[in-house]
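Box 4.2: Ligand-aware structure prediction
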Amino acid sequence: MTELVPPRRRSVLYVPASNDKALAKLGQLSCDAVIIDLEDAVAPGEKAAARAKLAGILAARPPRAEMVVRVNALPGEWGADDLDAAIRARPDAILLPKVDTARDVLEAGDALDAADGAGNIALWAMIETPKALMNIGAIAELGRDPASRLACFVAGTNDLAKDTGVAVTPDRRYFLPWLMQMVLAARAGGLDLLDGVYNDFRDAEGFARECAEAAAMGFDGKTLIHPAQIEAANAAFSPSEAALAEARAISEAFARPENAGKGVIALGGRMVERLHLAQAEKLLAKAGGIGA
Ligand code: COA
Ligand code: MG
């Protein structure tokens, strides 16, 4: 990944490490990233076998997708062995479940720093416990320090529902304050942010609606459970043609010699400031790799 083209994380597909049939499909899928799951999608009796397959799974990784491994919670029965195996498999990132505090992320970072071969492996954090939401500002702040390795938040909406007793409704009305809190924290920390999964994978219409809402709320992408969800997520989290055209127009306008020293200009009857130029450049950079 170069710094010029930030990674796209529109569609991020969970695949249980224990599901050989699903793993065999990865090369044909157009998701931006894959999360190989050792945690909730793998039954206790299958944990060790799934862990033992990690290195082979990563060795056969699809060429273009970012590869992430979700380990079991580090303080638990399987966490330490999972982390060792994940580091040896060299994914792009390790996703930590059940993060409660900034310390949880720092401790995982320390373990990576102390391990051989952890090089550039990033950390992603699930935001899925009430404590994580109470502490989200401090957790997100770690994103400002590259040494923490923290790069991305993933909303864990199923666990949040389970731990809070909040009702899950089609419009997610009771979750919206928490989801927006995640958006704010992720932006404050310079982190990417992925929405939680949509469990009813046969309901394409409901899924597309939830993607559109998440994109409007500021999420970078959505975590997925089924290949049928990839295309709609890629579409929903890609900038529209109109947004790209507007960004190009702003960029071209500020590049004109007569506008060189100006902080604010008029474009098509609207005020455009240099902050809009920065926003336009970010959008164009992020779109740079799309379809490449
Ligand atoms: N990744 C890759 N391939 C997948 C997949 C996934 N997450 N989910 C399903 N597939 C494949 C199936 O293997 C099947 O392949 P085939 O065409 O070669 O037979 C095809 O897509 C169609 O699958 P389908 O029959 O519709 O679903 P299923 O009953 O096999 O699986 C689930 C349904 C929900 C069990 C499965 O999608 C799954 O395990 N998803 C991930 C769950 C997970 O990781 N949860 C943890 C985070 S919330
Ligand atoms: Mg969870």
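In the box above, the bound molecule is magnesium ion. The chain has a mean pLDDT of 95.
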